[in-house]
Amino acid sequence: MFNADTWLPPEASLDQCIKCNICVSYCPVAEATDFFPGPKYAGPQAQRFRMAGQPAPDLSVDYCSGCRVCNEVCPNDVNIMEMNARARAALVAEKGIPLRNRLLGRNELMGKVGSHAPRLANFALHNPVSRVAADAIFGIAKEAPLPRWSTTGTFVDWWEKHYPHRLISDKKVVYFHGCATMYYEPFIGKAAVAVLEHMGYEVIVPPQNCCGLPMLSNGEFKAAGKLYDNNLRKLGPLAAEGYDIVGTSTSCTLTLKEEAPHLLDRHDETTQALTHAVWDIFEWIREHEDELPRDFIQMEMVIPYHPPCQYRAHRVGRPSMDVLALIPGVEVHESHARCCGIAGTYGYKKEKYDIAMKVGQELFSFILEEEEHHHTEFNACDSETCRWQIEHGTGQESRHPIEILAAAYGLYDLETRTTL
Amino acid sequence: MTDLLIIGAGLSGLLAGVWARRQGLRTRIAATGLGATHWHAGTIDALGYLPGEDAPVRSPFAALTRLTAARPGHPYALTGEAGLREALAAFRALLDELGLPYGGAANPDENLLLPSPAGAPRPVYLAPAAQLAGDMSRPEPYLLVGFQALRDFYPTVIAENLTKLGFRSRAEFLPIELITDRRDFSTIDLARAMDSADLSRLANALKRVAAPGERIGLPAILGLRRHGQIIAALREAVGAPIFEIPTLPPSVPGLRLTTVLREHFERDLHGRLDLGMTVIDFRAEAGRVTWVASRASARPVRHRARRFLLATGGILGGGFHSEPRGRVWETIFDLPLTAPQKRSRWFRPDFLAPEGHPVFRGGVRVGPDFRPLTLAGEPAFENLWAAGNLLADSDPISERSLEGVAIATALAAVTSLIKTDV
Asked: What is the pLDDT of residue A1?
């Protein structure tokens, strides 16, 4: 029998590849561009030519968006995406990293800097002149859906005000907000706290930092390792005490749980304790379904829902759909689309923006068809960059499923995104 | 509560999902990934060869008694001729309904012979409508048309081999720009490009190279979403019989088949399909499987269901695993396997031995109700069934029975598990 914790390093898993081409058939990036020949070629096939101390055999691997659709459809458990991520890191080590990718990898720093004067930062970043300049100078696509800083303070600003009024309970859970909730979308965190408290849990918001995913996907493994160590120092003791750590950004939770330890070869006990403590918030709610209050209000809405590729990479099914299905009157329609295209920071890059928009097309069409047939106002998606991309690609507003759940308890206004 | 959890999303898993869902069972499919259809020809091979015989089988049904005499544990011995016929008819009706029609020989008892990607005759029971005009019993001479820079289709090889077999055949090449401007592409990319291509350019080019009376064999790239319309429009514009020949993988006909089944299961029947879920563990109490667990990030996920159907495939599909020194086992429930445990006995010395290799015949033995058996011949678990190429005693490679076994056992297992009160 397999051992549940056994994980083959990607370099070893390439021997499981039988060259069946299923990954090539489903790769959304290879479909959109011939700069990327497909997961089989950039992954297991090129891997045979990658040797320590030898120059990288091909550069096309940089066009892999990291969406993991290849891993999902592979019948033989080959870790293709991880193979590509490591190959990109080797490329970065060999050839260096463009300033643009350095910037995109440092979303936490950007968040922090902008949040000191959010209105100014929003103006500085979002006016057409600076977008054209950023496009020309850095290669950040001028059309790409960059976020806006919260003008009502960060999540932690709110949390400090809420702290004296928080629910005190024997049941406690730790909340990992991530950078996007911290600086851009504090309302996601407020909705999460509202739901967790409604479930009777006391919420703990410990000091924390960026999970490191943007750096991992831009090949900066060393810097990402530092971020992981910092989180380990801050969250490790809570994990060791047995607290569950839940997050609303599904790519952050995946990174803490699996992506960073796998890519960075961290298999020590402290890391394992942390990975076992981390849950995506809906994965955790589904596990605690018997504690979920049923005092829902009748909602009467159709919600087109996209399970992001990063969510599917958790391999836990569709917990958000399972939980939202409990709300009376809510009908969740699944997108069955492969990827929205943005893939973290991929779609922000000038040379990749068009590819990302092409990849997202099947999702955008689904959302627009739903809007036409069911007059939907919102769609839902568990990942922030995907929501921004969906809004950019369709013009329809996107919500985190936790906002919908909070609204179903009458704790949240979906329209204004404020807690009630 | 899930009524049925199917493990495996190959042809048998998907069909079982469709059939169970249509009977009203709350059905989920969990699988590591997608199945062998993607590297097969998209045809339904029921029985092409008998063990040890060189000549292809004319009628799979007439040959059934000789097959089961040689291999008494064969899945067809369990479904019987009636079961095989019923399943193939049900498959055909389903695919008609889903807009991807399949057809066969004029005599519904017999196989067709279709040219393989190497130009050899392939015995096939049902083929996608697009492949039917390749039927080697038809009189028209063959024109095999390839595209420059397409690496996975060799019309000159096909034409030469068909000529050696006595069929009038020749090959032509057309520029790839008729279909796409891409410099790098797979057969799937070409099929997608065909969905939106201007067909008149291709049709005119085909008219220029075709001689009157010829039938035109093209690589199987004639569209994905709009496949039916594309082939009809081309036939009309060119005025000649046009057919597809499967290419090297990725297999467009296989992808079309998987896509219609999967979309029907997920979208029309609201079944849940989860990929990337490798089942690694289970719990049984009092002879019943209570849950299985799949590998996931950080911690395994448990899946509870009333009934479980194992459709994880044979040695290529991932239903078995082996150690370098031998020992081969069924990956989830460690069910007894009929495969030889010593690697030295897996293969015959002759690679192309018409009897096939023993390891490919190895598998899980099931009872007449398609529940896996213990060594003592008792059902291993009250609520566990098995279907597909995981079953013992069929050799899909040398028999050319892969899809027939998948379809017939999927229907038989679903029929059995619905009847059983659990």
From this structure: 34
